[in-house]
Amino acid sequence: MRAAPIRWLYVLLLALATTQAFAQGFPEKPITLVVPFAASGPTDTIARLLADAMGADLKQPVAVENISGAGGTVGATRVAKAPNDGYTLLLNHMGQATAPALYPKLAYDPLVDFQPIGRVSDGPMTLVARGNMPARDLKELIAWIKTNGKNVNFAHAGRGSVSHLCGLLLMKALNVQMTPVAYKGTGPAMTDLLSHQIDLMCDQTTNTAVLIRSGQIKVYAVTTNARVPSMKDVPTFAESGLPAVALTVWHGLFAPKGTPKPVVGDSCLRARVRILGLDVSRD
Ligand code: MLT
Questions:
Q1: How far lies 198's CA from each of 173, 182, 277, in Å?
Q2: Residue closest to 196 by CA, chosen among 131, 127, 128
Q3: Collapsing DSSP states into helix, strand and coil, what is residue 24?
Q4: Is the C-beta atom of 161 inside 6 A of ligand 1?
Q5: Which atom of ligand 1 is closest in space to residue 164's alpha carbon?
Q6: pLDDT one-digit tens code per residue, 136-162
Q7: 206: left (phi over 0), alpha (psi -120 to 50) or beta
Q8: What percent of the chain has pLDDT over 90?
Q9: 133 or 261: whose pLDDT is higher?
Q10: pTM: predicted TM-score of the whole model, two decimal places
């Protein structure tokens, strides 16, 4: 065998040995889990559950850092540009996939600049309103929306967020224009819904279920094809004649491109996600 190939073999073996050693020692310091939306919202809630479980399992703290803005693309950019050593991760949802269509100057390519680790959760969305909304059911709410049109404001977490996409699907299905109000996340938006500053919001059950049960907000429909087990009385949009308003929100864990396979793969992070995968449809 000629000298050059042996040298490459040596380099390859060295790289492999280093990566294996690196993976075996991983993690040696705390991990940062970036949430691209404000604290107290659904993505933040899922991230903190995952961070606690992963931290306990990996025996290193996993710290959640909220970097919000522009429908989640500010936080995603931070991770796309972060060192690919496994210590900076991103929890994002399907907004990761829709961002290129809505942000022509996006600073990353979701298909190229990230190493997907695993799907963490799937969950329904609910159409909710302020607690003093006069409408008793979806039929009355649609009539109220059509009567008030642009005077109806609905909250969302920025262009391309799932609360925004759901609101757009609703407006298209009803052929009515409401007034969108952008927040850094549906966590802060919920504060304004609770104080009746906002009329409507389409948000994940992770963030709405408890407030619906306590009667602080009203619910009119869910976006999944089947009713949600914990709120059987709430109709689906599909059975209410609006099948186009259909959304199940997936959340996934991502690392920067080039993060060593042994770190993101089955022997490490991916295995943890598989074990700890959260079922948020039973809220
Ligand atoms: C959040 O955590 O605020 C939501 O996931 C944002 C969104 O509606 O996309």
A1: 21, 11, 33
A2: 131
A3: helix
A4: yes
A5: 8
A6: 999 999 999 999 999 999 999 999 999
A7: alpha
A8: 80
A9: 133
A10: 0.89
Res. 68: pLDDT tops 80? yes
The identity of residue 5, as a single letter, is P
C-alpha 43 to ligand 1 mean position (Å)? 6
State both tokens at 63.
Answer: 């710290």
Kindly indicate the confidence band of residue 26, based on its pLDDT and cuts at 50, 70 and 90: confident
Beta bridge partners of 203: 126
Which residue type is seen at 95? Answer: G
Asked whether the beta carbons of 44 and 187 are under 8 A apart, the reply is yes
For CA atoms 126, 131, 133, 139, the dihedral sign is positive
Q: Which atom of ligand 1 is nearest to the CA of 186?
A: 3
pLDDT digit string, tens, across residues 165-206:
999 999 999 999 999 999 999 999 999 999 999 999 999 999
Q: Which of 226, 218, 233 is nearest to 140 (CA)?
A: 218
* Cα distance between residue 60 and residue 230, in whole Å: 35
Distance, CA 10 to ligand 1 centroid (Å)? 48
The finding on whether 211 has its CB within 6 A of some atom of ligand 1 is: no
